[in-house]
């Protein structure tokens, strides 16, 4: 659907001006307005609503297994009693119905004995949890326009590390914060003003900071792309503000809508829980979308659309990226990061760089270091990487044959391909690096 007149005026006001001529405050205001415009557009086309509904449904199936796994891990550390207060606090906007729902969930978790499930039962338990996390990753990847998912082996290692270690770290953070506030030293410092007021403020802000950190970790870890910590933190702050604001609004809605209990009777708690679960996922997805927009403002430009590189552009890009990575490695220059590679290109070329880097990584032509941000290095000696092999990364060798192909045309194309292959037969990445 073409944009209306007011949308055209808004697009012109937000995008068709030079931000460098404005004050820092106005630049931030325009940037935030662009983000809100992009998020509103995602609501309008139904994408966010659809993903939130899908994740809410999946959560209903995975909630008890997820809590059962967390409960079992925390029980080994003697901290399983902290799980119920965290769950009850998350369900607090549901009021009295939330307490009933929370109690029923904890009954399910307590009655689920992991030790008697057997091998198949435990496997299905972990599969349900991993499946939910994978769906969240897919939703984030769509926001970032990342076309590839984590490899299967990486899913198990990465997802399980979050599921198994995450609850322990959260409980440990709560314990450390609580112990620090109750310590004699802190209590003594609190008697001095204005230090006492500062400690009191930090104690009141602790839940907000913890939720913000949890959201920021989610936005920084789950998308299968490099997310800068500043962008993840911005998304975490927005999501936490939405979370607590929506919680107060939802609690007021529950209190003022006593008719729900009369209409749904014993199912009122379940209905409210499903609605709150949907709202919660909607908040998480909005924060993830803001993170993607903050790091990649080009994704917001409604004039750009989804650009597709031609075959020649993709071939040129893959050769240039490999030459830059190989040159830095061969001459011991500072290694290439994704951000450094993207800075060389503008517009949709910069967006395509990430996809090319992912393809090269999947084909084991480059490897990413464990640094933050990661740097990219050739996976093997650049003298052994042929140019034909590089071009094969972006050429679709699995084209389906067309019906009623003209033999003469097919023959010409095959001859052209053979000529290119022969011309590059003895050329390697090293030859490009030396000629750069």
How does this model look, in words?
The protein has 18 helices and 3 strands. It is mainly α and 436 residues long. β2 (366-368) and β3 form a beta hairpin.
The main sheet comes to: 3 strands, antiparallel
Mean residue pLDDT? 76
Elements, N to C (H/E): HHHHHHHHHHHHHEHHEEHHH
Please tell me what the overall shape is.
globular
The SS-based structural class is: mainly alpha
Proportion of residues in helical segments: over 70%
- Report low-confidence residues grouped into runs of 5 or more: 176-181
The fraction of residues assigned to DSSP E strands is: under 5%
- Straight-line distance between termini: 46 Å
Rg from C-alpha positions?
27 Å
The side-by-side strand order for the widest beta sheet comes to 1-3-2
Number of helical segments with 4 or more residues: 18
Q: How many strand elements?
A: 3
In short:
With 436 residues, the protein is mainly α. It has helices at residues 5-15, 24-44, 47-76, 83-90, 96-111, 118-144, 152-182, 184-189, 195-221, 229-256, 259-264, 268-295, 311-330, 338-343, 348-362, 387-394, 407-423, 429-435, and strands at 336-337, 366-368, 375-378. It is built from 18 helices and three strands.
């Amino acid at each position: 659907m073409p944009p209306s007149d007011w949308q055209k005026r808004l697009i012109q006001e937000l995008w068709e001006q030079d931000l460098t001529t404005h004050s820092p405050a106005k630049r931030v205001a325009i940037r935030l307005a662009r983000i809100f415009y992009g998020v509103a557009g995602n609501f309008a086309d139904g994408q966010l609503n659809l993903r939130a509904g899908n994740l809410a449904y999946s959560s209903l199936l995975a909630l008890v297994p997820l809590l059962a796994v967390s409960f079992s891990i925390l029980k080994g550390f003697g901290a399983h009693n902290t799980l119920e207060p965290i769950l009850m606090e998350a369900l607090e906007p549901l009021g009295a119905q939330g307490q009933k729902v929370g109690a029923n969930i904890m009954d399910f978790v307590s009655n689920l004995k992991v030790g008697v499930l057997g091998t198949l039962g435990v496997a299905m338990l972990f599969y349900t949890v991993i499946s939910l996390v994978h769906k969240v990753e897919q939703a984030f990847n769509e926001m970032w326009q990342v076309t590839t998912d984590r490899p299967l082996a990486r899913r198990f290692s990465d997802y399980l590390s979050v599921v198994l270690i995450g609850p322990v770290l959260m409980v440990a953070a709560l314990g450390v914060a609580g112990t620090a506030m109750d310590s004699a030293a802190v209590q003594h410092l609190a008697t001095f003003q204005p230090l006492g007021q500062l400690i009191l403020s930090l104690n009141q802000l602790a839940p907000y900071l913890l939720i913000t950190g949890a959201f920021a970790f989610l936005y920084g870890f789950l998308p299968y792309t490099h997310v800068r910590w500043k962008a993840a933190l911005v998304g975490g702050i927005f999501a936490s503000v939405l979370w607590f604001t929506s919680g107060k609004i939802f609690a007021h809605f529950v209190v003022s809508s006593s008719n729900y209990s009369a209409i749904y009777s014993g199912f009122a708690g379940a209905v409210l829980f499903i609605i709150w679960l949907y709202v919660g996922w909607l908040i998480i997805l909005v924060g993830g979308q803001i993170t993607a927009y903050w790091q990649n403002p080009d994704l917001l430009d409604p004039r750009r659309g989804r650009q597709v590189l031609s075959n020649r552009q993709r071939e040129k890009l893959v050769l240039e990226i490999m030459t830059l990575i190989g040159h830095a490695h061969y001459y011991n220059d500072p290694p290439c990061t994704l951000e450094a590679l993207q800075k060389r290109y503008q517009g949709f070329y910069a967006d395509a760089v990430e996809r090319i880097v992912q393809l090269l990584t999947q084909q084991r032509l480059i490897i990413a270091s464990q640094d933050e941000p990661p740097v990219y290095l050739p996976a093997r000696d650049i003298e052994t990487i042929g140019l034909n092999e590089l071009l094969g990364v972006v050429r679709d060798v699995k084209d389906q044959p067309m019906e009623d192909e003209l033999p003469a045309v097919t023959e010409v194309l095959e001859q052209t391909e053979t000529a290119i292959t022969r011309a590059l037969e003895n050329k390697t990445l090293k030859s490009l690096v030396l000629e750069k």
